[in-house]
Amino acid sequence: MLRKYGLSIDNVVDAKIVDAKGRILDRKGMGEDVFWAIRGGGGASFGVILAYKINLVHLPPLVTVFNVPKTLEENATDLVYRWQHIADKLDNNLFTRAVLQPIPGKKKGEFTARASFIALFLGDSNNLEITWIKSVLFLAYFPDGTPETALLARNLASPTAFKMKSDYVKTPIPKDALQGLMDTVAKSGTIQVMFNAYG
Known about the structure:
The chain is α+β, with helices and mostly antiparallel strands.
């Protein structure tokens, strides 16, 4: 829902922290610079977070999700290139993500790359609608039919450890660079790249 409402940090309206001097401070007491930093703007610890006050948003009773996977052999590079040119122009009720990942190729031990176009629409559709909580399972890659209670167990659908780096791209990546990226993903057998279309 970040395309319409922003990230969770964008919805934090107050917080309580304990600073290095042992003081309990709210947003006003800590000041806007520290408030900005504790929501992800800083690279270090500015205190112990005791609580966040978060602005809640309205959830529609039904949302629509879909996943369209395409391999390199199915023109995945061209599709990612074209997706870049429309992703920022889509309705804010439609969140889309393009995930590039290696998958086994036709020959044993070889990999190819797949681009999966994953989406969540804050509204209904005749055959694709599900509850929002089920969309959380979908976007977290839980298998179809996973009960909602799986979210309470705090088990990831994929328990593999990983490292992640985030960045913002403001202009489309050229097609030849995307092809190089797709080739690198395929050859790696492990690297995954995710593009999220923010609002």
